[in-house]
Design brief:
The complex is a heterodimer of chains A (99) and B (330). Chain A has a single domain, classed as Helix Hairpins. In chain A, helix 1 runs antiparallel to helix 2 and helix 2 packs antiparallel against helix 3. Chain A is mostly helical and 99 residues long. Chain B has 330 residues and is mostly helical. Chain B has 3 domains: 92 residues, Up-down Bundle (Four Helix Bundle (Hemerythrin (Met), subunit A)), CATH 1.20.120.1200; 86 residues, no CATH class; 66 residues, no CATH class. Chain B is built from 14 helices and no strands. The longest helix of chain B is centred in the first third of the chain and has 27 residues. Chain B is elongated. Classes of the chains: A mainly alpha (99), B mainly alpha (330). At the A-B interface, helix 1, helix 2 and helix 3 of A face helix 2, helix 3, helix 4, helix 5 and helix 7 of B.
Chain lengths: 99, 330
């Protein structure tokens, strides 16, 4: 097997995640799809690092994980704050700042 | 074919075991990702995403990224997804996805865009003509590894000691600035989460007395919420109470259970048995319940062990059963 297959898998996972972000309305599910996209990127990073026998890919994946953790913490607390004020976790209902 | 080409062909191949693992787990990961997008309930989506993340962790391990694989399991599936589930239980269990389109044709356009993007990415990778690589983690034993990123001796030694040592060396030398920025980011995120989730109490907390006076003043639900009544067959929390006319009392069911669609509606059965009860008359209660189990719960059911030990098969009454159980205990 060629390791490029890992890249194909990563591309497919990223695509599925992106489609989920566009298709779903529940803010938490949208968030999970963003996580899926981040994970797909990590897989690509690790695979590239392996192809070039280089640890830099793994280190970037590591930093991606840290940033993802921060993003989840802040994003989920935003979702909770919106849920408190609007009683809904749907992304369509948070439209107060729409022109 | 030249020997150089032979070498390149050898390097681009992974082991058969890894290939097998890849094809099996890639299918699982893709199914998990699709389920994340298409599952109706958010909890199911989260569990599907956990599956995908575990598969990715195994891929990391298989590609020699041991540290990342473990971190993926511990941090992603262990911490982040549990945080997701926690927030789901707090917020989103009762929230169903709205099917109303706020933008016209957005779903079709999104699906088309996703499909096109996938084709574009796949084609780009296929077009990139990646025919050979510098190296693979699973090299043959004879070949000496090369490390193009760091050529000084210390780094080479760190990398050759193992994945974690190599990563540590890189993070604390080459990427030390990014690493320090990470700590600032984490602190900012923690403070931000506290600020966002914190709620200042604007009015003093109501006492029990104030709450009860308010209930009386509103005159909506002065008495406690309805409980299963006289003819109730169940007192489980997911079975609604029946009003005297046999209809279901909406107030007796928790709103979350109703939103999840987890209500067991036994009203028809209950009404049926109430009717049977009323036709049979109130004198013999046991006969009136039609679908109750025939043997009362208190009647002794002779077990095989008891029959074996008891010489007299006729003594199947309560006293005999008590004696048998005592014998069994001693």
């Amino acid at each position: 097997m060629n390791p490029v297959n890992y890249l194909y898998l990563s591309a497919l996972l990223f695509t599925i995640g992106a489609a989920g972000v566009l298709l779903r309305r529940n803010a938490i599910v949208v968030f999970m799809c963003v996580e899926l996209m981040l994970n797909a990127c990590n897989l690509a990073f690790v695979t590239f690092g392996r192809m070039h026998d280089n640890l830099d890919g793994q280190i970037i994946a590591f930093f991606t994980m840290v940033v993802a953790a921060c993003e989840v913490v802040v994003g989920l607390s935003i979702i909770i704050a919106i849920f408190r004020s609007r009683r809904s976790a749907s992304v369509d209902d948070a439209s107060l700042m729409k022109w | 074919m030249s020997p150089g080409m032979d070498f390149a062909a050898e390097v681009t191949k992974t082991s058969t075991g890894e290939a097998l693992q890849f094809w099996v787990l890639a299918a699982v990961a893709l199914i998990g990702a699709l389920a994340t997008v298409f599952m109706k309930k958010a909890v199911h989506s989260a569990l599907a995403l956990v599956t995908t993340m575990m598969c990715l962790a195994i891929f990391y391990l298989a590609q020699g990224a041991v540290f990342l694989g473990i971190v993926q399991i511990v941090v992603y599936t262990g911490a982040i997804m549990m945080l997701f589930l926690f927030v789901l239980m707090l917020v989103g269990v009762s929230s169903v996805d709205s099917l109303k389109e706020t933008l016209k044709g957005q779903r079709i356009a999104a699906a088309g865009l996703g499909l096109g993007f996938g084709i574009l990415l796949t084609a780009a990778i296929a077009n990139a003509s990646i025919t050979h690589f510098t190296a693979l983690a699973t090299k043959s034993a004879g070949s000496r590894p090369v490390y193009p990123a760091e050529t000084d001796d210390e780094a080479l030694r760190a990398v050759s000691q193992g994945n974690v040592q190599g990563l540590a060396h890189q993070i604390f030398t080459k990427y030390i600035w990014a690493f320090e920025m990470t700590s600032a980011l984490l602190i900012t995120a923690a403070v931000g989460a506290m600020v966002l989730a914190h709620r200042e109490r604007l009015v003093p907390r109501k006492t029990q007395r104030e709450l009860s006076e308010e209930r009386v003043r509103d005159n909506k639900q002065v008495a406690p919420l309805p409980t299963p009544g006289v003819y109730a067959r169940h007192n489980a929390v997911d079975v609604p109470a029946l009003l005297p006319d046999g209809s279901v009392s909406e107030l007796s069911i928790n709103g979350t259970l109703r939103a999840r669609g987890q209500i067991r509606d036994v009203s028809a059965e209950a009404v049926h048995s109430v009717a049977a009860l009323e036709t049979a008359g109130a004198d013999d209660d046991d006969e009136a319940w039609p679908d109750e189990s025939d043997a009362p719960a208190s009647a002794p059911v002779p077990t095989a062990r008891q029959e074996h030990e008891d010489p007299d098969p006729g003594s199947g009454d309560e006293v005999g059963a008590g004696a048998g159980s005592k014998e069994g205990r001693s």
